[in-house]
């Protein structure tokens, strides 16, 4: 049973993530028009927003501690926020600033926060093997930490995911895989590329428990995730969960979604998990005034993080050569790569 305080926590995480992305959306568009120059403006590069996915991250991360590991894919903000990633440093990273989580070199798909064991990556299913590694480390060290790998429905046919399920099962590791099924992988509808409607059935082939939460109801997610995470923490092995979420936006900012039926876009907007959890709170006697207070607190936190990030310095060009595996030959670093004729 989810307590009313847990509902409050999830609501706060969800409204923080939604408002954060609404603000990023505005910042992202600055300077990009009229030709939609993706490299222009204060947030250069791609931006994948997760509006409509918040019930999944809030329900799962409710049960996690800082020493638990979470990996997320290219649509990471809601998960990072629910895991407790430092919002200021994360925002500075998204804005490419020197004080960002990765010194401004990674951008929004490469957020690493060792303080809360969070990582994400733009490579589909890439988070699964490291989550298995973290779970194996926890087991070998005899701790009760767990690992959670978030992935999209488009990642469930990837070798990295299937191999991770196998390794997790063979070694009985404390890891939970969470598929966020938003029915799409960019412009590809799930039913054209995947043989199962219910992705949690992938668990059957690896002799693991698999469960699907059929709606983006944070309470239902919290209940299913609570069981899976307790199972992992108690040394009883991995679980595969799938959560039906909704993509309220395009795949990335600037996606005109010409491939997507209008009715599907509308349906995603109607099914709002944030409205649903607000109703749950009201049915537990929480007044609208308190919901307003929670929202205002979340908005203030986000506004502070964004204004702080925008005041941060950009990295200097020389820093491009720091923290890389291979540096360029000395001459290239000093004369900008002009090898001349010699
Ligand atoms: C290994 C790999 N192949 C292809 C891509 C290009 N790509 C980026 S996002 C994406 C679709 C992902 O869909 P899904 O996993 O369902 O996540 P969603 O975007 O729907 O949240 C693809 C194919 C990639 N990043 N990595
Ligand atoms: Mg998807």
TrEMBL record:
Secretion signal span: none
GO biological process, one term: pyruvate decarboxylation to acetyl-CoA
Cited SUPFAM superfamilies: Thiamin diphosphate-binding fold (THDP-binding)
An annotated Gene Ontology molecular function: pyruvate dehydrogenase (acetyl-transferring) activity
Coiled coil spans: none
UniProt keyword terms in alphabetical order: Oxidoreductase, Thiamine pyrophosphate
Cofactor(s) required for function per UniProt: thiamine diphosphate
Disordered: annotated segments: 309-342
Cited InterPro entries: DH_E1, PDH_E1_Alpha_Subunit, THDP-binding
CDD domains, alphabetized: TPP_E1_PDC_ADC_BCADC
Domain Dehydrogenase E1 component: 41-318
Lineage: superkingdom: Archaea
Protein name from the UniProt record: 2-oxoacid dehydrogenase E1 component subunit alpha
Organism, as annotated: Haloferax elongans ATCC BAA-1513
């Amino acid at each position: 049973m989810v307590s009313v305080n847990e509902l409050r926590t999830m609501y706060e995480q969800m409204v923080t993530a939604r408002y954060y992305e609404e603000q990023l959306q505005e910042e992202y568009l600055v300077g990009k028009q009229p030709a939609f120059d993706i490299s222009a403006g204060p947030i250069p590069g791609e931006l994948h927003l997760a509006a409509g996915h918040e019930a999944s991250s809030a329900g799962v991360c409710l049960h996690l501690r800082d020493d638990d590991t979470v990996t997320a894919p290219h649509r990471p903000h809601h998960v990072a926020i629910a895991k407790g990633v430092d919002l200021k440093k994360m925002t500075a990273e998204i804005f490419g600033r020197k004080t960002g989580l990765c010194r401004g070199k990674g951008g929004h798909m490469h957020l690493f926060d060792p303080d809360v064991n969070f990582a994400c990556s733009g490579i589909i299913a890439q988070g699964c093997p490291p989550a298995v590694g973290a779970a194996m480390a926890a087991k070998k060290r005899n701790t009760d930490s767990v690992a959670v790998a978030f992935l999209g429905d488009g990642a469930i046919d990837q070798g990295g995911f299937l191999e991770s399920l196998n390794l997790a099962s063979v070694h009985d590791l404390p890891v939970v895989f969470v598929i966020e099924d938003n029915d799409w992988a960019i412009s590809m509808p799930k039913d054209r590329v995947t043989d199962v409607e219910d992705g949690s059935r992938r668990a059957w082939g690896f002799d693991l428990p698999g469960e699907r939460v059929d709606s983006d109801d944070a309470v239902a997610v919290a209940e299913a995730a609570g069981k899976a995470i307790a199972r992992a923490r108690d040394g009883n092995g991995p679980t595969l969960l799938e959560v039906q979420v909704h993509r309220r936006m395009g795949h990335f900012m600037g996606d005109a979604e010409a491939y997507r039926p209008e009715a599907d876009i509308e349906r995603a907007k109607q099914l709002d998990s944030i409205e649903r959890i607000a109703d749950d709170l009201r049915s537990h006697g929480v007044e609208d005034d308190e919901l307003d207070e929670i929202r205002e607190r979340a908005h203030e936190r986000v506004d502070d993080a964004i204004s702080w990030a925008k005041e941060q310095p950009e990295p200097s060009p020389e820093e491009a050569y720091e923290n890389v595996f291979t540096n360029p030959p000395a001459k290239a670093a000093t004369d900008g790569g002009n090898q001349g004729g010699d």
